[in-house]
Amino acid sequence: MSGKVVFITGGNRGIGLELTKAFAADPANTVIASARDPSKATELQSLSNVHKVYPFLLKKSTRVISFTSSLAGSIGGFFEASSSGYGGSKAALNHFTKLLAYELRDEGFTVIAVHPGVVSTDMGNATVPRFGEDTRKAMESLIITPEESAESQLKLLLGLTKEQSGKFLSYTGEELPW
């Protein structure tokens, strides 16, 4: 377990704290842990080689949190496809994005969810053939490379405005329905 870099959410209590302690016991590991309220995470703060995410985010005036979502998680943009587990998890992520944008608004954060496009990754290539014929044909015409998606997302992230916080955006910058 030596020499790992781990990010642990909820690292201030319960299972998260115990995992944080276990990884932090080896000084060769880099442990990054989050806590809902860092000021109350006294036991977490006592661990000398654990990095807290929130203080890193506060070091810059540009505070952007971007979550990779998917149109499969859009309720307003629902399309007929069997993606219940994946789509449900992305719908939950979209909801979390909206909540976090609300919670961090007064601290100058811009929080968004981004649909990366129909990307020719292992996952994307395995998924498209499972759709019905009409959906599959439509999706095949939209396929982009991982490089194209990343380039477009980088442009989007570098040009974000505070007004876009709490939005669900396409990799092209278009606002999508939740």
TrEMBL record:
GO molecular function: oxidoreductase activity, acting on the CH-OH group of donors, NAD or NADP as acceptor
Lineage: Eukaryota, Fungi, Dikarya, Ascomycota, Saccharomycotina
The name this protein goes by in its record: NAD(P)-binding protein
Any matching Pfam family: adh_short
Organism: Cyberlindnera fabianii (Yeast)
InterPro entries per the UniProt record, alphabetical: NAD(P)-bd_dom_sf, SDR_enzymes, SDR_fam
